[in-house]
């Protein structure tokens, strides 16, 4: 134990984590070193230890994620108006995607890689949901989104649903990714509408992923390309240390 990192150096942060684990999951920090499966060495930087914890947290969250547990749905009266805009740049810089030559790219572990035009996406079965979007920056808002159940879309393109991840690339070079269980969740939708009309530029025209079981940053807007893969695609915020699973 001598050359192990002394976790007591980070007591306040760890106490908070311990409390959260205990409250939310009935786990304790005592089990952490056993469960991480990584030896925390003396030379390890604190950020590496925290990354290791975050990856361990992903595994615990993925194990506890239920494909059947639904995010709460709300009524029209609950809708936040105006709905907030957020991106890693100001609204004026949001990408203007041309609807007429939009062609959603498909790659990876799928049978049919034919790109999708907007009329073809609109011809698929559509659903609508009123759910809460929660941003890691400390705000949340209730909105209405409409579009194609993503599970249906994945089946339609012959995706290998045993693959681990679905990755997204956006018109503004934003990227994100989902685990397959979340991609197949009944409330995950390939959204084309916001508040009953085609998505405005602010909220991701012409298409975004609406994932009410995930934090806002895992809801990519202006999606141009989708890939099904076993190699963790990461993402814009995921790669900067935001917890990858980020359930809400
Ligand atoms: N393409 C793209 N998608 C994105 C982002 C972005 O900067 N670019 N920001 C994410 C974050 S952090 C949030 S909170 C939501 C904001 O979505 P909204 O503008 O519809 O509220 O979009 C997510 N998806
Ligand atoms: Mo966010």
TrEMBL record:
Q: Which domain of life is it from?
A: Bacteria
Pfam families in the record: Oxidored_molyb (PF00174)
Q: Which residues form the Oxidoreductase molybdopterin-binding domain?
A: 94-237
From the UniProt record, list the coiled-coil ranges.
none
The record, for SUPFAM superfamilies, names:
Oxidoreductase molybdopterin-binding domain
UniProt name for this protein: Molybdopterin-binding protein
User: What is the organism field in this record?
Assistant: Paracraurococcus ruber
């Amino acid at each position: 134990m001598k050359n192990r990192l002394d976790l007591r150096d980070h007591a306040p942060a760890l106490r908070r984590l311990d409390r959260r684990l205990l409250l939310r999951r009935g786990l304790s920090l005592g089990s952490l070193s056993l469960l991480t499966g990584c030896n925390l060495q003396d030379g390890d930087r604190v950020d590496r230890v925290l990354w290791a914890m975050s990856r361990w947290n992903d595994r615990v969250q993925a194990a506890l994620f239920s494909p059947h547990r639904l995010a709460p749905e709300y009524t029209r009266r609950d809708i936040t108006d105006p709905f907030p805009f957020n991106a890693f740049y100001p609204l004026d810089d949001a990408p203007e995607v041309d609807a007429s030559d939009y062609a959603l790219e498909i790659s990876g572990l799928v049978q049919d890689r034919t790109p999708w035009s907007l009329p073809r996406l609109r011809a698929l079965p559509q659903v609508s949901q009123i759910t809460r979007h929660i941003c890691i920056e400390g705000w949340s808002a209730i909105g209405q989104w409409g579009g194609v159940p993503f599970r249906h879309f994945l089946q339609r393109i012959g995706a290998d649903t045993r693959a681990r991840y679905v990755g997204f690339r956006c018109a503004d070079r934003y990227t994100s990714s989902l685990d397959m269980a979340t991609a197949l969740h009944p409330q995950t939708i390939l959204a084309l509408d916001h508040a009953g009309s085609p998505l405005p530029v602010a909220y991701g025209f012409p298409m975004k992923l609406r994932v009410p079981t995930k934090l806002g940053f895992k809801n990519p807007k202006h999606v141009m390309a989708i890939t099904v893969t076993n190699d963790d695609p990461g993402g814009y915020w995921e790669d900067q240390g935001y917890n990858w699973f980020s359930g809400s």
